[in-house]
Amino acid sequence: MIQFRRLDHILVSIPEGETATAREFYTRVLGLTEIPGNHPGGAIWFEIADIQLHLREEAGERQRSKRHPAFEVSQLEQAKQELEQQHISIEYSSEIDGRQRFFIRDPFGNRIEFLEFLP
Which CATH number fits domain 9-117: 3.40.50.1980, 3.10.180.10, 3.20.20.70, 3.30.565.10? Predict the structure, then answer.
């Protein structure tokens, strides 16, 4: 049996030619720290707690998929208010016992979940 230790990183696709827009959204709007470097395939990497988010340009038609990374946060309501102040639309989905959550979309339609476990 595979002995997993933790999630290391998630790769999210962005449209070709949109790296600057992605960098602006993920650093200014979400407040993530970019990991400097010449990363494979021209990707940009960000730190989120003890995992990494990788963004990489890919050709092809995009659709509004339900695929997404989910990030656990402290003070979910505060995170929601900060995003709304940035004019980011908040979306909701089915409820899950023991946690609260909401979703946003980045400028490219990628879905991102924010969640907080209830005490």
Answer: 3.10.180.10
